[in-house]
Amino acid sequence: MRHRQIVLLLILGIAFVASCNGAQQNAQQDSAVPATKSDAAGAAADATPIADTAAASRDGSGGQGGNSDAAAPVGSADARLAPEASGGPEAGAADIPAASGPDASDAPAAPLDLAPGADLQIAAPETNSDTAAADRAASLDIAAPDVASELARNDASSDGATASSLLVPVQGALLGAYVDNGIQDQIEATLGRKLAINHNFFAWNLDFTVQAGKDLAANKIPLITWEAWINGVGTPLDDIINGVQDSLIRSRAQSAKALGKPFFLRWGHEMNGNWYPWDGFHNGANQAATTKYISAFRHIHDVFTSAGANNVLWVFSPNCDGVPGDSWNQWANYYPGDNYVDWMGVDGYNWGNVQTTSVWRSFSNIFGPIYSGLAANNKPIIIPETASAEGGGDKAAWISAIVPALKSSFPGIKAMVWFDTNKETDWRFDSSTAAKNASVAMANDPYFNP
To answer: How are beta strands 263-267 and 413-420 bridged, if at all?
Structure first.
């Protein structure tokens, strides 16, 4: 009997243990499902702010600076792509642990800034380096010709000209010169390279298209500065505005159209100075004078457009400093508008001690104050006139600093033209042996061979 009781107790114990184990397993299985759902819901909730933050960074509403003008670097048309403003790729998402969201490799690439005149800029840590745009494109598996075609497809001027017809280099900047007789052979022999741009000045009544045709035939880009005076006597702006000069303007427009290729036309340059008959100082020295200049610029442009001369690239070109420095004479007051300008321009010289009131100024000091305003118009920038004196400093060092300054501070400057003549002082590339050597090195830097 006792034996049977022991066996029975053993059987009951075994059954009881089995029952407890089964209940525990069922409890574990039942609790596993809601736990997994909870984790998934938490992961989804965590992923949402990451996606939103990344998107905010890409569209400029997040990250350091966002679209704030104050955060944008000097001359930046778009703070989103500036490393100083964006803090690197996908700014704002970088501080969120990777485990709480999708793999970083799934994030969309930063947008490309393909505005005319702007370098190919990627919001990446190396954007501040001196790497050429073509090299950066290659790192993204984008060939330089593809970037050029992208520019041509995406960017158009007011009269339908594409970026390629705007003559904007894909990377670096174009280099040119003004020489006294308009023939660059000697200076090209000195520099050991061909120049891309030939700059010439023409009085109001002279047919500049003849020289432009010669330059185009020689595979050079003409830069024509058309001056509204004849033998030192100014052509009244009122005569231009009221149509008195239309016959002459239309004749130039028709000849320009016949050239069939793009070239730079700079009318009414340095209008914010006090040394030309078309400037504001000689036309009232007040806000009305700036309005008159704009009307004249637009009228000439409209006559060319009506004649079909859409190959003309219009350059608006103030002096780096307004003279006088009154508020009415600020260069922006003369701007004809985006529909009338293809390239922004600016002239600036280092006079050294040539004048009693002049001082030695670096390249960056000359162009830095005006650059941000010019670049804000989101157009390529050209320096139609620049050079340095010898007296008062080291001209060779001044020249050697140009390319580094362009790379680091003035990426929107896409063309520079040297004033190679002995006029007020010896502005020439080779005014001394040291200046010549520095000029040869500068002219042959890859940045000037886009």
So the answer is: unpaired
Q: What is the DSSP secondary structure assignment for residue 236, as one 8-state letter?
A: P
Nearest 5°: the CA angle 152, 158, 163 is 20
Q: How many CB atoms lie within 10 A of CB 424?
A: 11
Could you tell me the pTM of the whole model?
0.67
Tens of pLDDT, residue by residue over 295-334, are 999 999 999 999 999 999 999 999 999 999 999 999 999 9
12's tokens: 């009951």
Separation between Cα atoms, residue 302 and residue 285, nearest integer Å = 26
Other C-beta atoms within 10 Å of 294: how many?
A: 19
Whole-angstrom Cα distance, residue 120 to residue 143? 12
Amino acid at 181: N
Q: Is the preceding peptide bond at 324 cis, omega within 30 degrees of 0?
A: yes
What DSSP designation does 104 have? G
- Are 195 and 220 in contact, with CB atoms under 8 Å apart? yes
pLDDT single digits (tens) 35-85: 333 333 333 333 333 233 333 322 332 332 332 333 333 333 332 222 223
- Rounded to whole angstroms, the Cα distance separating 270 from 280 reads 10
User: What residues contact 38, with CB distance under 8 A and at least 6 apart?
Assistant: none
Contact 415, 377 (CB under 8 A): no
Query: Domains in the chain, ordered, with CATH?
Result: 153-448 (3.20.20.80)
Give the largest Cα separation in the chain, rounded. 142
Tell whether the torsion through CA atoms of 206, 209, 213 and 219 is positive or negative: positive
Q: Comparing C-alpha atoms, which of 56, 42, 58 is closest to residue 100?
A: 42
- The whole-angstrom separation of Cα 236 and Cα 284 is 12
